[in-house]
Design brief:
3 helices; mainly alpha
Amino acid sequence: MSVRLGVSLEALSPAFQRFAVRTSKRMQDISNMAAQKKQELAEQVKEYSKTFEGLPKNKELGAIGRA
């Protein structure tokens, strides 16, 4: 029971509350940055796939190389 009491008193501490708020904000910021990067990478992959659509396939490259 003393562990629960210690945790409860710690949660009431202003220093702990500041820590919890800062940590929560950082986690949210990191989550937002990750979502943004995921979107950017998805867009880049889409652009690259459009670029590579017009390139010859491996079979075509082999035939060109042997000619």
